[in-house]
Amino acid sequence: GENVEQHPSTLSVQEGDSAVIKCTYSDSASNYFPWYKQELGKRPQLIIDIRSNVGEKKDQRIAVTLNKTAKHFSLHITETQPEDSAVYFCAASKDTGTASKLTFGTGTRLQVTL
Amino acid sequence: SAVISQKPSRDICQRGTSLTIQCQVDSQVTMMFWYRQQPGQSLTLIATANQGSEATYESGFVIDKFPISRPNLTFSTLTVSNMSPEDSSIYLCSVEGQASTDTQYFGPGTRLTVL
Hints:
The complex is a heterodimer.
Chain A: E1 4-7, E2 10-14, E3 19-25, E4 32-38, E5 45-51, E6 56-59, E7 62-67, E8 72-77, E9 86-92, E10 103-104, E11 108-113
Chain B: E1 4-7, E2 10-13, E3 19-25, E4 32-37, E5 43-49, E6 56-57, E7 68-72, E8 75-80, E9 89-96, E10 104-106, E11 110-114
Parallel strand pairs in B: 2-11
Antiparallel strand pairs in B: 1-3, 3-8, 4-5, 4-9, 5-6, 7-8, 9-10, 9-11
């Protein structure tokens, strides 16, 4: 089955700096890659996603890049703010014709310091 | 996106008992999923709840331990049976997005503590 690795496990940046989180996946058939943000005690919230026919996607301060050849994708957060502090999870899935099952990475705890 | 609710939000249970968690969605969805998130860990898919048929379980999860019901397109339950302290986790349901079926949105979760 699919295996998703995520690095780093923790990341501390100063407010205003950029943060980058990287994930690799094992199944070359995976074609959908979402990123979730989970604040303490809250549900995971989808913040951005990318499909395999696209190399990059941006939404204001966040962007995701995908390298299908290398089987890795990354989350980029620019101009970080304290409210960006949370655990971020990457995930991967493939279209099986029935249900698209998400396999999650191990998570990155991002702390944005003042 | 759909509004998803779960009951209970949290519970403390005794070893050997069972707990049924409910997931309600405000619109009809084809696919519903159940995940487990152990303390400080990532999310692991338990099973896909299929309407009108048995759930599809992932490796390491069995129906006797985690029976699932899906009586209609807006509701599902997950039961954690014969609980042990190792079952202490957050249990989350998720549903597919209405615009895109491979996007998933999560319920608020049920925090279970087994003593």
